[in-house]
Specification:
Its cofactor is FAD. Its EC number is 1.16.1.1, 1.-.-.-. This is Mercuric reductase. Helix 1 packs parallel to helix 10 and helix 3 crosses helix 4. Helix content is about 30%, strand content about 25%. The chain has 3 domains: about 140 residues, FAD/NAD(P)-binding domain (3-Layer(bba) Sandwich), CATH 3.50.50.60; about 120 residues, FAD/NAD(P)-binding domain, CATH 3.50.50; about 100 residues, Enolase-like, domain 1 (2-Layer Sandwich). The model has no long low-confidence stretch (mean pLDDT about 95). The protein is built from 14 helices and 23 strands. By secondary structure, it is of the alpha/beta class. The relative contact order is 0.12. A hairpin with a 2-residue loop joins strand 5 and strand 6. Bound molecules: flavin-adenine dinucleotide (FAD). The site of flavin-adenine dinucleotide (FAD) has 37 residues, from helix 1, strand 2, helix 2, helix 3 and helix 10.
């Protein structure tokens, strides 16, 4: 009756994962995007930022031993080459080879079982909205009269600026701040809260903040951006810090202040699909308020990460086609890819205190207690594990070398409800960073 089993709007992490999940179930899939497949993650998010961070890390390490001159043009061109390389895995030909039909165009939902792309109507049993999000631009004085950077154009810069103001001390702002600073750009980081990464474990975010300052980042915390001006290749940002106005200057300004869901002009109102300014409302299976229409990824939130978009895609397709009536249990995890990395799953200590008062246990080990970290000269950092009174992990934050990879083992234990003390009987190679986990679990209550 319908041409396709599923029609997906948006070919970013959410749409691509939905398509692959549906294909693995033997379904007929059409995927539509305005541009080439990949979305924010490939073209202006995870891939270019991680490429820039890696190049900056190599330069930072080399600078310890030699006077290095950074060729900004070469760096930015390398970032774009790496984007193209990563894109190959999801290029249209690859999608077609996997059995996915790809249409380039602007799509809109038509009714419960069809979408419109240009003048064509495409019918499908299920529809998935995966239209993503875009950078939030602050409505400060002067914003419409200046040129500014966001994640959408920063990776297209031909060369590195000499100096840069970054507004926003969340994960994106902090990652880019450190990368540019390490590449020789003088960065001034402006954050409204009294510290960077204010949602993360306080002590660990403060340690990371110390590292940024040691590397030369000029930090302006508790600072509200008020006005921006541009003249003679200089951008001036006026900030308010404790009722004192300051003017800070740089060649370029970059806003990393959070994201806005792409919910406009896709037909939500016509069909009565419920949404707020945070995104489309969905149930635990990612189905919207209209049956057969699902939404996944940044357009839903609240965790704006590619892997969370992937998880939601799985949830949606299993419900749509396998009629699953128990949602897959969700254990969100993420990492800020600074050096050192800050990885996290579950609660912070403060969140645990709010929920359990003092009825939980906290285990911490510093990286300076690890032989491997000592010989690598990577002793900044700490791992903190929070367990409930029955000994199960309810939160973990790791600041340190390879933190993101170390989180995997804890994430497995948390997801499959393995008591934390069990880890002490597992053998970890010496000298490895993973030994920090056995050290932590040695203290765990059985
Ligand atoms: C600088 C930066 C670094 C990041 N780093 C990480 C990281 O390290 N790890 C991580 O997990 N996440 C990271 N993220 C977040 C990650 O990029 C997003 O969570 C992810 O891209 C969301 O995927 P999505 O499919 O929901 O949306 P998107 O990737 O935004 O894809 C949406 C797609 O929909 C298309 N579209 C929109 N409207 C229409 C329409 N009407 N018709 C047709 N097509 C349409 C768009 O063209 C786009 O291709 C980062 C983000 C940024 C900005």
């Amino acid at each position: 009756m319908f041409t396709y089993d599923v029609a997906i709007i948006g070919a970013g992490a959410g749409g691509l994962n939905t398509a692959m999940e549906a294909i693995s179930m033997g379904k007929k899939v059409v995927l539509v995007d305005k541009y080439k497949p990949g979305g924010e993650c490939t073209w202006a998010g995870c891939i270019p930022s991680k490429a820039l961070i890696q190049l900056a890390d190599e330069i930072h390490a080399a600078k310890k031993y030699a006077n290095i001159e950074v060729d900004g043009k070469q760096i930015m061109s390398k970032v774009r080459q790496l984007i193209e390389k990563a894109h190959q895995a999801e290029a249209v030909e690859q999608l077609q080879a996997a059995g996915i039909e790809y249409i380039q165009g602007d799509a809109k939902i038509n009714d419960q079982h069809s979408i419109r792309v240009a003048h064509e109507t495409i019918t499908a049993e299920k529809i998935v909205i995966a239209t993503g999000s875009r950078a939030l631009i602050p409505s400060i004085k002067g914003i419409n009269q200046v040129n500014y950077l966001t994640n959408e154009n920063v990776f297209q810069l031909e060369d590195l600026p000499n100096n840069l103001i970054v507004v926003g001390g969340g994960p994106i702002g902090v990652e880019l701040t450190q990368a540019f600073q390490r590449l020789g750009v003088q960065v001034k980081l402006v954050e409204m809260a009294d510290r960077i990464l204010f949602r993360e474990e306080k002590g660990l975010a403060q340690q990371l903040q110390g590292t940024l300052e040691e590397e030369g980042v000029q930090l302006y915390t508790s600072a509200k951006a008020l006005e921006v001006k541009q003249a003679n290749c200089t951008t001036t940002l006026t900030i308010d810090r404790n009722d004192v106005l300051e003017h800070i200057e740089a060649e370029q300004i970059l806003f990393a202040l959070g994201r806005k869901p792409n919910i406009k002009k896709i037909g939500l109102d016509d069909l009565g699909i419920r949404y707020t300014n945070k995104g489309i409302e969905v149930n635990e299976y990612n189905e919207t308020s209209v049956r057969n229409i699902y939404a996944v990824g940044d357009v839903v939130g609240p965790y704006l990460f590619s892997h969370m978009a992937g998880f939601q895609a799985k949830q949606a397709m299993r419900h749509a086609f396998l009629e699953m009536h128990t949602p897959i249990e969700q254990h969100p995890a993420w990492c800020t890819f600074t050096h050192p990395e800050l990885a996290r799953t579950g609660m912070t200590e403060n969140e645990a205190r709010e929920k359990f008062q003092d009825k939980f246990n906290v285990y911490t080990v510093s990286y300076s207690e690890l032989d491997r970290a000592v010989v690598d000269q990577k002793t900044t950092g700490e791992a903190k594990i929070i367990c409930d009174q029955d000994g199960f992990i309810i939160g973990a934050s790791i600041l340190g070398e390879r933190a993101c990879e170390l989180l995997g083992e804890l994430q497995l234990m948390k997801t499959f409800h393995i008591p934390f003390h069990k880890l002490k009987d597992t053998i970890h190679p010496y000298p490895s960073y993973s030994e920090i986990l056995t050290q932590l679990s040695n203290a765990a209550v059985e």
